[in-house]
Amino acid sequence: MSAPIPPPAETPASPPPPPSLLDLFISFSTISLSGFGGVLAWSRRMLVEERKWMTAAEFNEAYALCQFLPGANIVNLSVVFGRRIRGAPGAVVALLGLVGTPFLLVIAIAALYARFGDVEALQRMLSAVSAAAAGLIISTCAKMAEPLFRERPVSAPLVALLTFASVGVMRWPLYWVLAVLVPLSIAIAWRWRR
How far apart are the first and last CA of the chain? Predict the structure, then answer.
């Protein structure tokens, strides 16, 4: 009597192939055209959830780096991601996708706003859009915080709460808060990994 043959071991899902230059351009154009009032939520959704080109942790790390670079965070993210995937051409294409089409669109909208900006109904509509954008930012922050809280159950929530309390509640200057909390969080992370 022969021994039963064990079922084949499940192979982990292979990562998706890296995007082409055209994929980068289309994806970042889609991100920028989707994100009125900010594209952080859309970029995370596209790169992490839909295309799976980055993990949640990779996105958080790249975005954290981009916050400390000069310039707009999402512009920095497009350059960092494009460079990582396709080198210098990838950085240029991702940046052009992110800013090219919206640049032309904003020029057209600015001309329309200059003409019709005083209309009261338009002012009410813009107020409603800003409330929706605030909710989108809160939702994205919660999604970005989830891996931090899961992987570092004590240190990450503590640093996040200290940052929120210092800047959001106490209204201390952001640069002073970062000057203290960034070295503290690095020390905690270094100690945690040992």
Answer: 51
